[in-house]
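RETRY 2/3 - previous attempt timed out on the joint model. Re-submitting the same 437-residue input unchanged.
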Amino acid sequence: MCLAVPHTIETLLDDGRAVAVAGAVRTEIRTDLIENPSPGDTVLVHAGFAIEKLAPEDSKELLDLWEEIRRVSGVDYAG
Amino acid sequence: MPGDLRAAVEALRRLAEESATAVTVMEVCGTHTVSAFRSGLRSVLPKSMRLISGPGCPVCVTDQGEIEAALSLLRRGVVVVAYGDMFKVPSASGSLASMRGEGHDVRTATSAMDALRVAEENPGREVVFLGVGFETTAPATATLVREARRKGIANLSVLSFHKRTPPAVEALAGAADVQISAFLLPGHVSVITGHEPFRFLADRFGLPAVIAGFDPEQILLAMVEIARQIRAGAPELRSVYGTAVRPEGNRKALGLLDEVFSVRDARWRGIGLIPDSGYGLRGDYGDFDAERRFSLVIVPGTPPAGCRCGDVLTGRITPPQCPLFRTACTPLSPVGPCMVSSEGTCGAYFRFHREERT
Ligand code: SF4
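RETRY 2/3 succeeded.
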């Protein structure tokens, strides 16, 4: 039940609704829980509601962790 | 496997070897359980690292008495709207599915807003939405209630069994008989709550706690981070899911939760009553509270005979240790809710555990 799937907002409708696409599937979603929804936004949709906009870039914490993995693993990274 | 994932597995192995202690990581969320099985991730974990499942399946932790309350509404001629996952959960007097078979009016919702439509289309009938789920689904129910008020819809109310994750995690972190070394925290609950409500794990209990998304790479990274913290002897709260989780959470959703709900004690299957772990409707929204509208008294239920769901949900046993697993209890005829739900631990073990051993 906690599955959430990234969708891209296509058009905004009235009353906190929007049409969003994920792959080939187009659905109506609610945008009440996010700030300033706009077409083109990638949002995480859970049980019919967008619960957050997805940020395009990875967080600094994640980049640090990959750095650490490279250091500890000794695996040839190009592999 | 791409080189970077191989590097992550190798890093995990080396870190685990260096710290040379057995590590039990509780994944709080059922979606993590299923993803770790399905992707084969469990099979690449170092022997010293064990993943156990926690109470993060909303269907599974819903108390027997809560299901009974929903069934009692159906017997009074009310239309009940519920997420499909709830339909097969058994209770002493049947399930939503069996009541539907007997002609009662149960509707499936994929979004809380479906209940609004049902209420609008059936103005002469009382419609109740069964609000289950954690911080991820509770804001949707809050939106439903607010919209119902705005539109002046008088025949809709909500039976709120929504639960708050941090108090349950705290109860498990403090349980004397469950030895947990670290927590893998649910990404989508954290999208709403933000980091802060889980910081006590490191600060008060000295446990590594890592927020992760649900694809196998995220879980793997979280395990590396947990192993790194254990090796360094420096537990902290971290997130590997920065693309979705802001440290401060989703302020709009949190504001809505605050507006519509008040925090109250809630009963969790297998754990019992946990202070401040539930959401009930606030006094201002009392007109939409089904408990009040129908004067419901919710009595704690007795679990099905022989079912060890409670012990499974708290990491005390794994499903194969339940004598009914795969014998009397299967997904086709589930004895307890942990077998019913697609994210339930018993259901996940039923589908994937054999493959894991081969
Ligand atoms: S296997 Fe079935 S009976 Fe046993 S704990 Fe799981 S749900 Fe309950």
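Chain A has one helix and five strands. Closing ticket.
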